[in-house]
User: Fold these one by one.
Assistant:
Number 1:
Amino acid sequence: MEPAIGRINPIRFALRSPRMARTAGLVFLVTMAGCGPNADSRPTTPVPPADGAVAPPPPPPPAAPVATSAAPTTAPPSQATVVTADDPVKGKRYGGGIITEPLHQRFHIAHRIIFEIQIPDAMRLYKASDPNNRGPKSHEEFMERIIKENGIELPKLPAGNEYFFDAESEQLMMRHP
């Protein structure tokens, strides 16, 4: 049997057009995402016993925690936390939908690259060049030698928050208002 010369694969032919390729990609995404709720989000109903026995009553709902006056309801103004990829403003308003979730992930991944790859690598290089294998001694030295010299652009934080470097833990922190 001889191979058919000049026979065109219709899928390859259709995907040569950028418009058709986008349409096929969108159809694939919608098909993979689905339209219904997840199986985990559906409420479960208890199945009655088959032998006619009475099922035990459901457990009572957990009691609400009682707030005490000793625990503050807001963070103190000088509280600081380690900066994560979820802290910057850019990309926070996206997510949850079939169109907006990729936008959220795009910004989240860019922030993770900065905080989990670029800054730690720059710190390792700085420590390797230091004769005592120490990190920067101050916030100013960190911003100059780690951030500025390596061309790292820190993402914008929510209003009132600011970056600072903790020399003891050698971590970039976010100071809350």
Number 2:
Amino acid sequence: MRRPDRVRGGTAGMTLIELMFACGILAMALAMIFGSLISISVIGRITESRTEAVTVLASVLEEIRALPYERVLTYTPPPNMEGPGVAHAVSVACVSGGAPVGETGDTTGTLPTLALPLAPDFGGSLPNPLEVQVTVRWRESSGHVFQASASVLKEK
């Protein structure tokens, strides 16, 4: 038996429209994949800087836990601490135990704090136990500003 000859104009190949449609679908899929890779990279960088900030925060809290009550009041974080991002700041404060700020006319309702270290001639009374708050603020190279905070109670 003989094979029949192919008829000209049959359906053996792809038309130009089908090829353009397939290329368009492929281009959209690649754009979504590359977009998600960029997002994953940005999220990874943010997570890494948050992890570094929490490490700095934990080390300051451990130093404060190890100090006696009297030395906590004069505590200053080491100036050479490496932190996340381009610029960072570690601030330490204690809750003074006075009336909440919201009761004195302010509407925030937060307790008043005193920045550490306190002056040697500080004559005010502080509560026992004393709540010491540590805050790490940093700015990434992209310009975003982040903050992580924690507190610890110190007894006399």
Number 3:
Amino acid sequence: MIKNKFSQNFKQKTGNLKIEVLAVWFAYRDSRTPWYAKVWLALVAGYAFSPIDLIPDFIPILGYLDDFILLPLGVLLAIKLVPKEVMDESRIKAKDWIDQRRQKPKNFTVTILIVLIWILILIIIIRYVLKAFVFGKRNPKTYQ
């Protein structure tokens, strides 16, 4: 009984998040949305519709951190930045989009940004490893 209620509640929350993310995307495209909100909306919607995650899901616990914590918090802040009437209209458009079973938008710009972040992280790790284990083992007498 409790498990069934939990799964129903979970499905409802994820369905609501899907609508909210799409609504954020529609609000971003609306001309009545302030510029500062558009910056945040672009980041949130772009990340949500990116084919890859900043933190891959196969990493235990942390992999789902962005899906269950970061994305909902980003959406929540986005909703607070957008005028209420724009957000209400965007939710209606999002529900219609889902009812028509259209595919979610794709954002390859954020995908490229995420790939660049991962490359930067790898470069930092490689430099640290090289510094600690390869160049750090030199004999101090050679520098005298």
Number 4:
Amino acid sequence: MTVTAARVATPPAILVADDDDAVRQSVADTLRLEGYAVTEADDGDTALGLLGTRRFDALVLDNRLSEQHAMTELAAMENPPPTVLMSAHDVDSSGRKDLVVRGIAYLHKPVDPEHLLDAVATAVGRGRRSAPETPAPRSETAPA
């Protein structure tokens, strides 16, 4: 009898930073339900402190986090994790192109949960979890 150890996959670690408690909690809850390990920060200083001490697979950030612009903070980081940027403010087309070039996803608030999950799955390089497929019923033909 051969015994093999099962590999337990560690869920991707996501940092959610938003100074709006309701938005942060909603985003964090959505990600936890999808199986992510979520850490929350309610201001920019806390988020930067966490980024300095822990490894995250992706960031979900409010663009205007406590008077700090997330883009400024990301630009200062040497090798930031993949980022999903949320904002209640519109970004013009050249701004969106700049985000795409930098590999940063942009979501307009209020954030649609499906768009959030798709953006984070892309950021961490994994497909979305889905319910197991139910086999289609077999069609039976009557004998001729």
